[in-house]
């Protein structure tokens, strides 16, 4: 498995230069490192911020599971989507509100065909809300199918 968390990960993360705002590091409550977040007051409604995870060395014709922690805190704060590079048109995962402000776990199966996925994009779309944030952390890529809960 590959640990792509932000505090100590070995992965290559890039801010998208063509979007409306950047994701920024935010300190964790317990003080052990940080996560990436988009605060509710950044940007205008419908603005997008994209954070790309560049993937190298994924084997063709194999399966991977991307597991990550996410938090959507605040009223109408926006949407969090995940795109795979070879399926640019539709998100493979989307969430637009949290039941509460707790961190949750997202899982995405990545099936490699002959062409391999070379990046995963976390996209935040701003909502109408002015308080709260959208956050992502603890991104891990494991080989094989996603484990059941």
Automatic annotation (TrEMBL):
Superkingdom of origin organism: Eukaryota
Gene Ontology cellular component terms for the protein in this record: membrane
Domain MAM, first and last residues per copy: 2-148
InterPro entries found in the cross-reference section: ConA-like_dom_sf (IPR013320), MAM_dom (IPR000998), MAM_domain-containing (IPR051560)
PANTHER family listed in its UniProt record: APICAL ENDOSOMAL GLYCOPROTEIN PRECURSOR (PTHR23282), MAM DOMAIN-CONTAINING PROTEIN (PTHR23282:SF101)
Name of this chain's protein: EGFL6 protein
Name of encoding gene: Egfl6_1
């Amino acid at each position: 498995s590959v640990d792509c968390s932000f505090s100590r990960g070995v992965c290559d993360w890039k801010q998208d230069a063509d979007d409306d705002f950047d994701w920024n590091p935010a300190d964790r409550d317990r003080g052990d490192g940080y996560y990436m977040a988009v605060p509710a007051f950044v940007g205008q409604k419908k603005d997008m911020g994209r954070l790309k995870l560049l993937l190298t060395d994924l084997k063709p014709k194999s399966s991977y599971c991307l597991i990550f922690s996410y938090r959507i805190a605040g009223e109408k704060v926006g949407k969090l989507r995940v795109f795979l590079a070879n399926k640019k048109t539709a998100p493979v995962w989307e969430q637009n509100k949290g039941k509460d402000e707790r961190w949750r776990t997202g899982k995405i199966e990545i099936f490699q065909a002959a062409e391999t996925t070379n990046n995963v994009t976390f996209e935040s779309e701003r909502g109408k809300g002015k308080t709260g944030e959208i956050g992502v952390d603890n991104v891990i890529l494991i080989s094989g199918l996603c484990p059941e809960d």
